[in-house]
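Problem: given the chain below (124 residues), write out its structure.
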Amino acid sequence: MSKIHVLLVDDHALFREGIRTLLAAEPDMEIAGEAANASEAVLLASESRPDVVLMDIGMPGPSSFEAARLIRRQRPETRVVFLSMYDDGDYVSECVRVGASGYILKESPAGQLLTAIREVHRGG
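Solution.
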């Protein structure tokens, strides 16, 4: 069984560590890399060729939306799932506009995140 390669993008190291630990426990998932901002995410996505990018929607520096747009342009087969603290319809609309496959609230249970990763990897 091939593993789902996931690139983690969040400016909070502790949050990335928690997600890394969660995904490492899943037999069908593997961390492709980690980035602390949108610029690093674009570069790492090009280098590591992840199946799924989990990206914080609100980081300092360049826009996460622009990063998602660039990642999708460079690697159309890579799916982007945004992570956010905000249940905001405008954010969801912008995510769809830039080609994201999902939007998960950071307050969601771990099982929901794992399900979302698997679903978007399958094309859902």
